[in-house]
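#onboarding

Welcome to the new folks! Below is a worked example of what a typical request in this channel looks like: someone posts a single protein sequence, and someone else replies with the predicted structure as tokens. Don't worry about understanding the tokens yet, we'll cover that in week two.

Example request:
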Amino acid sequence: MNIDDIRACIATASAELSSRKEEINRLNVFPDGDTGTNMSLTMESVAREVAALPPNADGAALRKAVTHGSLMGARGNSGVITSQILRGLCEGLADVTEFSTETVANAMAHAV
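Example response:
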């Protein structure tokens, strides 16, 4: 996986989350019914920040864009929780030079 692959994954994840936000809102764990909307807005901010990176951006710049985009775009409790998960994922990928199922699984475990 290279940075373009990751950029595409983030854009796809954001679009998919946005398309299913009403479904998530109906599963809502918070009483205000906007969990899916807030998670979607948070991911849209991440996608914008990542899309703005230059073509030659490195992993550190990508991780910074994800963490900054999610923090600044976090909306509501679910958005803040989403940003914290993404921050943990980025921290778990800090020393990774090659993506594999094992490195991604380890990063996901760190995000927990």
